[in-house]
Amino acid sequence: MDNKNKLKEMLKDIIPCIEGPYIIADGALLGIIREGDLLDFDEDVDIYFLPETKINYDKLPNKYKYYKDYMAYKIYNAEDKIPTENEWHRFISYKRCCYEYLGYNRSELTEAVSKDYRKQKIVRQYPSIWIDIFVLVYDDKHNLYRIPYHWQGTEFYFTPDESEGQHDNSLGFTINIPNKPKEVLTRIYGSNWMIEDRFHKY
Predict the structure, then answer these.
(1) I need a labelling partner for 188 at 20 to 30 A (CA). Which of 54, 96, 106, 202 fits?
(2) CA 63 to CA 23: how far, in whole Å?
(3) Which of 82-86, 92-96, 180-184 shows the lowest mean pLDDT across its residues?
(4) Residue 10 belongs to domain with CATH number
(5) Which is more confident, 67 or 104?
(6) Is residue 200 a part of any domain in this protein?
(7) How far are the Cα atoms of 48, 62, 185 from residue 152, in angstroms, in the given order?
């Protein structure tokens, strides 16, 4: 089974374990809106939780494990190795923290750094696929944000009274997406998100 279908199977198993509002985000959202499916070359799916949303790990099938890294909870197949960063991912993480790239979205940053380096170093070398769970936070005006990458700034996704966003069943089961998914994707990836780029790390 390829990564896309494995990720869909994982999502179908994990979504019933989510207790509270959530949305599918980032590369998975891009695939759903642009192609009506997950991206063929993605290794993960990002899910955003409201601060009060929890996952019931007692309901999670035994075939999955999870751990907390510095930003997200990762759920992965128990038979796989724990996901680790590849060299390109470390390079991009470093560039995100450079002063000259503050305020760049992901596509702008990828375009700004060396294309030759990108083509040489971005290799599908993750040992497994996984689900990333990010818990959003409230600001002092009760708006919801993802804890920001320091180069990116805060990104607005939805308001508490619209926390479950729209529903989408293009994967064959119902998932929650943001209320304005195209605006969200433009904010994250820039205006060219409709153009496929297999070298981009979604």
Answers:
(1) 54
(2) 24
(3) 82-86
(4) 3.30.460
(5) 67
(6) no
(7) 17, 36, 14
C-alpha distances out from residue 198 to 32, 53, 121, Å: 16, 33, 13
Print the domain residue range for 14.
3-189
Q: Name the average pLDDT for the chain.
A: 79
Question: 121-159: string of b/e by CB count within 10 Å (b at 16+)?
Answer: bbeeebebbbbbbbbbeeeeeeebebeebebbeebebbe
Q: CA 102 to CA 200: how far, in whole Å?
A: 19
Q: Does 194 map to a domain? A: no
Q: In the chain, what are the helix, strand and coil shares in percent, each to the nearest 5?
A: 30, 20, 50
Given a contact cutoff of 8 angstroms between Cβ atoms, the answer to whether 80 and 64 are in contact is no
d(CA 40, CA 196): 11
Q: Are 188 and 108 within 8 A, CB to CB?
A: no
Residue 159 lies in a domain: yes
The verdict on residue 195 lying in a domain is no
Cα(174)–Cα(18) distance, integer angstroms = 13
Overall number of domains in the chain: 1
Give the pLDDT confidence of 172-190 residue by residue, as tens digits. 999 999 888 888 888 878 8
Q: What number of CA atoms fall less than 13 Å from residue 27's CA on the CB side?
A: 23
Confidence (pTM): 0.78
